[in-house]
Design a protein that fits this description.
Structural class: mainly alpha
Low-confidence stretches: 1-10
Largest sheet: none
Mean pLDDT: 77
Distance between the termini: 62 Å
Order of helices and strands: HHH
Number of helices: 3
Shape: elongated
Radius of gyration: 19 Å
Number of domains: 1
Helix content: over 70%
Strand content: under 5%
Number of strands: 0
Length: 83
């Protein structure tokens, strides 16, 4: 019985670690995408350090759905809070 509980505990710990690793990989992918977009829009990439994940995704969604222009840059700056 103790071995079964120990095995179940170990399995759930590994499953949690896998989920955390997946979440971290997804977060890094969002950051990399956002960094590339900010560079293209001539916005310092340091600005992304103060953004939430939701804000990062919102910016990516806006930039990804439109042509790069000053209107898109203004929208991104508004989200960042510099406009």
């Amino acid at each position: 019985m103790k071995r079964t509980i120990l095995a179940l505990t170990a399995a759930s710990a590994l499953a949690g670690f896998g989920s955390a690793a997946h979440a971290m990989a997804e977060f890094e992918m969002v950051q990399d995408t956002l960094r590339a977009f900010l560079i293209e829009l001539r916005i310092p990439s340091e600005e992304m350090d103060k953004l939430t994940l939701a804000q990062m995704r919102e910016i990516i969604s806006i930039v990804d759905s439109k042509k790069m222009n000053e209107g898109v840059r203004a929208q991104v700056l508004k989200i960042i809070g510099e406009n």
